[in-house]
Amino acid sequence: MEYAQFKIGESFKTATGTWRCTDVGTRTIAAIHIAYADGSPVCADPSWFNGPPYAVVEEVFDAYDFGGCYTMDDPEPF
Fold first, then answer.
1. What are phi and psi of 40, to 5 degrees?
2. Predicted confidence (pLDDT) at residue 77 exceeds the cutoff of 80
3. Is 49 helix (H, G, I), strand (E, B) or coil?
4. Rounded CA gap, 36 and 52, in Å?
């Protein structure tokens, strides 16, 4: 994905599963992991994905990570 494709509240995929963008910074984005690669949720209580603040850890993605991110519309890259 390109930096401009990340939007707060929208989901994207990586090799580790599905993520939801929670913040777009100047050169980075923050996201929460919402589902593993097999589709199972990261936690059983969906209220943990409500925020901010979030009950799950927000991870930071930078320009080096964007190449491993895919929109939800992309065909399965893995």
1. -75, 140
2. no
3. helix
4. 21
Confidence category of residue 76, pLDDT binned at 50, 70, 90:
low
**18 strand-pairing partners:** 13, 35
Question: What are the tens digits of pLDDT across the range 17-45?
Answer: 999 999 999 999 999 999 999 999 999 89
Which of 48, 16, 22, 14 has the alpha carbon at shortest distance from 6? 22
Q: Which residues contact 19 (CB under 8 A, 6 or more apart)?
A: 11, 12, 13, 31, 32, 33, 34, 59, 69
Task: Name residue 78's amino acid.
Answer: F
Long-range CB contacts for residues 5-8, cutoff 8 Å, separation at least 24 = 5/71, 6/69
